[in-house]
Amino acid sequence: MEVEEDGKLPFLDVSLSRNADGTLGHTVYRTLTHTNRYLNKDSNHHPRQKRGIIKTLVERARRICDPEDIEKELKHLEEAFIANGYSSQEIKRAIRPNRHRGGDSHEKNAEQSGFACLPYIHKVTDRIGKLLEKKKVKTVFKPTKKIQQSLGSVKDKNDPLVTPGVYRIRCTCGQLYIGTTRRSISTRIGEHKRHCRLGHTEKSEVAEHAFNDGNHRILFEETEVLDNTQRYFPRLTREAIEIHKHQENFNMIEETAKLKRYGRALRSLPHRL
């Protein structure tokens, strides 16, 4: 919880202060660790996006600051953006009040016949955008792939068996079992193994198949994870779909009865999707 210090109290982007006459003053609030680093002028972004950052911060200053504090805040923004590579002329042009009327933009949007989102490549897609605008196609630009995206994540991927989800166990006879669990799949597989070893056919459909339908060998080592999800209904839905897809399953009748919940939608699916 924020606490008032020296007559000032921060609230979101606003710094509230007590005036001598008992009224409240308002200005933009920044944390002590704020670095004033914004999108650099040399970054590979469309100029419209760079101007948009300046305009957004200027508009924030005009909305928050008291009249006597606006010039100080605008001066601060100018110095910050100069440090980020922008020229004074670019900053002043972005700071200039917007004189366009909202009605004009609505009329322009109504005339547009399409929308296109293009990766920004300097002197290539910006020219394409101008051609599209002549055809009344609104164009926006997004940054190209970043180095971090190309390198990928350095984190180790989680073993799919240690998460909840839907799984498939095969038998040497050619049949298979589709199951789901809200615990880790490896935990549930361990229970199936134990029931098979101890002959607990009433506790596991896998154990019942292994003992009651002949001397089968369950291929636990080839367990396949079909879907990893913790949510209850998506798991049941995926399990029902997989049971429908694999007619050679040895799931109990109670398990296959789940298909009735999904009615015509599942019955219209091919057995092999």
Automatic annotation (TrEMBL):
InterPro entries the UniProt entry points to: GIY-YIG_endonuc (IPR000305), GIY-YIG_endonuc_sf (IPR035901), HTH_animal (IPR058912)
Q: Which domain of life is it from?
A: Eukaryota
Which Gene3D superfamilies does the entry link to?
Answer: GIY-YIG endonuclease (3.40.1440.10)
Q: Where is the GIY-YIG domain?
A: 162-238
Q: Mind telling me which PANTHER family this protein's record contains?
A: GIY-YIG DOMAIN-CONTAINING PROTEIN, REVERSE TRANSCRIPTASE
Q: What is this protein called?
A: GIY-YIG domain-containing protein
Which species is this record about?
A: Exocentrus adspersus
